[in-house]
Amino acid sequence: MDNRVLLLALCTLEKAIRQSWNRSTCVPFLRKKWFRDVPERGQSAVTALLVRKIFGGKILYCKHHNHYWNRISRSVEVDLTRDQFPENIHLCVDKIVE
User: Fold this and answer.
1) Residue 52 has what DSSP assignment?
2) Could you list the pLDDT tens digit for every one of the 98 residues in the chain?
3) Does the predicted model carry a pTM greater than 0.85?
4) Cα(3)–Cα(75) distance, rounded to whole angstroms?
5) Is residue 61 within 8 Å of 74, Cβ to Cβ?
6) How far apart, in whole angstroms, are the C-alpha atoms of residue 86 and residue 90?
7) Which of 34, 40, 65, 73 has its CB 3.0 to 4.6 Å from that of 84, i.e. a possible disulfide?
8) If you ran DSSP here, which 8-state letter would residue 32 be given?
9) Backbone phi, then psi, for 63, in 5-degree steps?
10) How far is CA 88 from CA 16, 42, 65, 83, in A?
């Protein structure tokens, strides 16, 4: 897929996903900590699964922050829920799900 087409598709998907996030789509153990000001909280697993279903690739996992995101190709990583963490938080890859 051409990178421009991929970027447009990801932007469209991100907008739709962001509109759907709420307390009920949050992972159960974080539901009491979910608030509209940080809608990404608790949404990484379901979001990563959806991105992989549409674009393929691999799901990456950081056990230190219980966080999932996607590697669509060698040069493209996508994390639609990264904004839940401060910029100084480092997310390492502890596991790759094929």
Assistant:
1) H
2) 677 888 899 999 999 999 999 999 999 999 999 999 999 999 999 999 999 999 999 999 999 999 999 999 888 999 999 999 999 999 999 999 98
3) yes
4) 10
5) no
6) 9
7) 40
8) G
9) -70, -25
10) 27, 19, 13, 11
